[in-house]
Write a structure and sequence with these properties.
By secondary structure, the chain is α/β, with parallel strands linked by helices. The protein has 14 helices and eleven strands. The radius of gyration is 18 Å and the shape is globular.
Length: 339
C-alpha cells in the first residue's frame, strides 16, 4: 500500500471540515461525511463520481461554505469510506438516504449536487423517502442514466460493438494507475478533461483519481457498464439543472440532452464549450453559482431546527469529530493503492 497526497495548496486543496461523521448505511457500510460552514445556513449536499472523493468538490466547498452548510461524503470504497462487498445502484441510493437522514433535520430541504456517478446516485434514490423529504432542487453534472459504455468516446473509433467492447475493457481495467507522472497527466487529461484545462486542474484530478484503489475502480466500472436508471430520471420531480461539457468523452452531451427531455421539471441545460467530464473542477465558478442560485430560489428561508443525533451517525473517532482537531496535513493525505 502506498500513500498519495492530494494537492496541498490552492483552490483544489481539500479544506478542513467543521465536523466529520461516520454514517452507517442500510447494509452496515460506513461512510465518511464532512460538514463545512455555518450550522444554521442553507444546506447543500455533494455526491462525487466514480474514482473520486470529497476532495473533488474542494473549490465548491471553499466558495459555498461561507454562506451555506456544505455536506460532502465519500461514496463507499472511495476516499475515506471503506470498501464494501456490495456495489450497485441500490447501495448508492441507500448511502445517500443515510447521509441525508444523519445530517439534515426532519423536513429540512437541501440542494443536492451530483457529479457523474454522484448524479447517478441521485437518480437511483429519486423515489426514496429521504430524497422526497429533503431534496429542494438538484444539480446534475456530467452524468447519464444508461448506455454509458456504448456512448463513451474515450476511444477514437466509430460507434458500434467493437468500440463498446474495447471501451469496456479500458474502463474496467484492473491495472494499477501508478504514480502521477507527466504521462499519466496527459492520459487523464485526454480521457476526462477538455483540451484547454489548466495544468493545476489536471494535477488535482489526477491525484484524486489515482488515489482510488484499483479493486474499487474495477468493481464500480461493472456497475456503470450495466447502468439503467431511466426510470429514476422520471421520478426526480424537484427542479433539476443539468450541466455537461461539449468535450466530455465519458458522458457526452447526448446524455445531458436526454436527461433534460426526460426530467419532469428540468429548469436548465448548460453545455460548456470545450470542457470535459470534470466540470466542477474545470468550471468551478459556474458550478458553484448554479448550486448557489438553486439554493437561493428553492430552499425556504427559515431557522434550521436542531437535528437529532441519528442512530446511523457515529463520531469519526478521537480527534476527528471536529475539524480543528484534524490537521491539514492529515486531511490532505489519503491511504492508497490496495494491491
Amino acid at each position: 500500500m502506498s500513500r498519495i497526497a492530494y494537492v496541498a495548496s490552492g483552490p483544489y486543496a481539500p479544506p478542513v471540515p467543521a465536523h466529520v461523521l461516520t454514517v452507517t448505511s442500510a447494509d452496515g457500510a460506513r461512510l465518511h461525511v464532512e460538514v463545512h460552514g455555518p450550522e444554521n445556513a442553507p444546506a447543500v449536499v455533494l455526491a462525487h463520481g466514480w474514482t473520486c472523493s470529497t476532495a473533488f468538490w474542494a473549490a465548491q466547498i471553499r466558495a459555498l461554505s461561507a454562506g451555506h452548510r456544505v455536506i460532502a461524503y465519500d461514496q463507499r470504497g472511495h476516499g475515506r469510506s471503506p470498501a464494501s462487498r456490495t456495489c450497485g445502484t441500490d447501495a448508492l441510493a441507500d448511502d445517500l438516504e443515510a447521509v441525508l437522514r444523519a445530517t439534515l433535520a426532519p423536513g429540512e430541504r437541501a440542494v443536492i449536487a451530483g457529479h457523474s456517478m454522484g448524479g447517478m446516485t441521485v437518480m437511483a434514490a429519486a423515489a426514496r423517502p429521504a430524497v422526497r423529504e429533503h431534496a429542494a432542487a438538484v444539480l446534475l453534472c456530467s452524468t447519464g442514466s444508461s448506455r454509458l459504455v456504448a456512448s463513451a468516446t474515450v476511444l477514437p473509433l466509430r460507434e458500434g460493438r467493437v468500440r463498446t467492447w474495447l471501451t469496456r475493457r479500458v474502463l474496467g481495467s484492473r491495472a494499477p494507475l501508478g504514480p502521477v507522472t507527466p504521462v499519466a497527466l496527459r492520459i487523464l487529461k485526454y480521457g476526462t478533461m477538455g483540451p484547454g484545462s489548466a495544468p493545476h486542474m489536471v494535477e488535482a484530478c489526477a491525484r484524486i483519481v489515482h488515489a482510488c484503489p484499483r479493486a474499487v475502480r474495477h468493481a464500480w466500472s461493472e456497475v456503470l457498464d450495466l447502468l439503467d436508471l431511466d426510470h429514476g430520471v422520471r421520478e426526480l420531480r424537484v427542479p433539476v439543472e443539468v450541466i455537461v461539457g461539449t468535450a466530455d468523452r465519458l458522458t457526452p452531451p447526448v446524455h445531458a440532452r436526454s436527461l433534460a427531455e426526460a426530467l419532469p421539471n428540468c429548469v436548465g441545460l448548460t453545455e460548456l464549450p470545450g470542457l470535459g467530464h470534470m466540470t466542477p473542477v474545470e468550471a468551478p465558478e459556474l458550478v458553484t453559482e448554479k448550486i448557489r442560485a438553486l439554493a437561493a430560489e428553492h430552499i425556504p428561508v427559515t431557522p434550521r431546527a436542531s437535528a437529532k443525533p441519528a442512530a446511523s451517525a457515529k463520531p469519526a473517532g478521537p480527534g476527528r469529530s471536529v475539524g480543528s482537531a484534524e490537521s491539514a496535513d492529515t486531511h490532505a493525505v489519503h491511504a492508497e493503492e490496495s494491491a
